[in-house]
Known about the structure:
By secondary structure, this protein is α/β, with parallel strands linked by helices. The chain has helices at residues 66-78, 93-109, 144-153, 170-179, 193-201, 223-231, 246-256, 308-317, 322-329, 331-336; strands at 2-4, 7-10, 14-17, 20-23, 26-28, 36-38, 42-46, 48-50, 55-56, 59-60, 81-84, 87-88, 115-116, 119-122, 158-163, 183-186, 206-207, 234-238, 261-264, 276-280, 283-288, 291-294, 297-301, 354-358, 364-369, 372-373.
Amino acid sequence: MQIINGKVFDIKEGFVSRDVYTDGMYIAEKSGDDVVIDASDCYVIPGLVDVHFHGCVGEDFSDATPEGLQKIADYELSEGVTYICPAGMTLPEDQLTAICRNTAAHRKNNSGGAEVVGAHLEGPFLSMAKKGAQNGAFIHEPDANMLRRLQDAAEGSVRLVTLAAEEPNAIEFIKAAVDMGITVSLGHTTAGYDVASAAYAAGASHATHLYNGMPSLHHREPAVIGAAFDAGARAELICDGIHIHGSVVRLTFAMFGAERMVLISDSLRAAGMPDGIYPFGGQEIEVHGNRATIAGHPETLAGSVTSLMGCMRKAVEFGIPLADAVRASSLNPAEAIGIADRAGTLDVGKEASILLLNKKDLSLRTVIFKGQVQ
Ligand SMILES: [Zn+2]
């Protein structure tokens, strides 16, 4: 396939005029066939990677059903999110085990939709004081043995775990997780700067939805935000336009640099669905427009109803340069879950997961996934 006349995302140059070639499922130096796609008036960007969302189109990853996960994967691909690492919630270990088994089984079936790269365990190793919309009844102290059992159930596909660094055994847990090939992210935490810095020194490298579920950035107590900055960690931002003010999106990109920002949707099962009441991790959420809150607690935000594609567009609307917003939705999350050798840019040799966006409004014109036009 040859994609011509587009403005093509380049990690060093931003957007350049060049052609992109694919051969089979990979980006190549030359086209493997005679197919030509005209990308006039389009940006050509890598497929997006969402490492933190819970569900969409009425389905939740935590339900652990094969049909539900398939619907999630199909919907995400239709939105241009080609690689996903959905997040579980704070739940009892047997339910987390079911989530992990379902992930492993889905990966083996290879039944279409976005690639489910693995699972993000957002809980149960969180702080009660910063549980947000998570169910406090199932919060558990950091437990490396439990994590190992879950990683076994997932057949090695747990890619990310969120941790409250102030809880007992956190340092030992971090070292064990890193040994299991799992990226450790600090979040849903009350940790101060010193505790968080020690966690980053022990191997944590990511921050879960920066600002949400952690102490605010205070000039004398910078807590996790300051520690993540100083440690060179990557930071997630929920860029749905509700969770974070546009000014804070801009200043966080400026502080951390676009190479460390990871845009996430944190979307719930209500994404792609009408307003209403929906079940969520043993609780209920209420959705009005693009705002989702715990039912009866309109002040407690409970994730978003926007896909990562919508969040990337919102970042651009907030003034983030398109190339930076693309990087923060593709390469950076790909690095966070260990797939940057095959995803996240349009470099020769990577999987041909390519999106064409209309220049005028960034709407999605074409999704190519592993060399196949969808
Ligand atoms: Zn959360």
